[in-house]
Amino acid sequence: GDSVTQMEGPVTLSEEAFLTINCTYTATGYPSLFWYVQYPGEGLQLLLKATKADDKGSNKGFEATYRKETTSFHLEKGSVQVSDSAVYFCALGPRQGAQKLVFGQGTRLTINP
Amino acid sequence: NAGVTQTPKFQVLKTGQSMTLQCAQDMNHEYMSWYRQDPGMGLRLIHYSVGAGITDQGEVPNGYNVSRSTTEDFPLRLLSAAPSQTSVYFCASNGDGSYEQYFGPGTRLTVT
Lengths: 113, 112
Fold this sequence. Notes:
The structure holds two protein chains of two kinds. By secondary structure, chain A is mainly beta. Chain A contains no helices and twelve strands. The termini of chain A are far apart. By secondary structure, chain B is mainly beta. Chain B has strands spanning about 5, 10-15, 20-25, 30-40, 40-50, 55, 65, 75-80, 85-95, 100-105, 105-110. The relative contact order of chain B is 0.34.
């Protein structure tokens, strides 16, 4: 079945550092790919998405590119802030729409001032 | 516009007890889902619904029942709670063709 694998956490960085969180997937067909973020005590929020190969999703300084050849969707940010501390989830869904998402295990990110 | 609401926020049950986790959305979304979140395992889909009167099983449906009598509500029932059901439960909804699922704030359930 479909699956998503994220890099092991937790990840701790200093403010203004460069961030990469790796995500690879296994899926039949051509899924849509997502990054969700969960701030402490809250539900998940969509951070960015890409719906076809070579698409780049971006939001709040975060970016991820849908790489079909390497089945990857790595999350990057050039300069992280303390407010970026959260748990980040990579997910895949069907080609059309966002129902029946398959999530990775999540990566806890802590940014120190 | 409240989005997706869940009650209760916290619950402690004894093994064998039953309860219903409530979920409601006011965005007129067709699709609603229940997930459980466990450490190191991300979120796993329990049940989902594509519209009123239509439900289907997700990845981990055993021990849970759902029904969808209205577009707005999607309750999750635990008929006989077990310690393995200790988890954080999230309800989510999304509109037809939309790529964004909206999540509720979650219910933290402990079964002793």
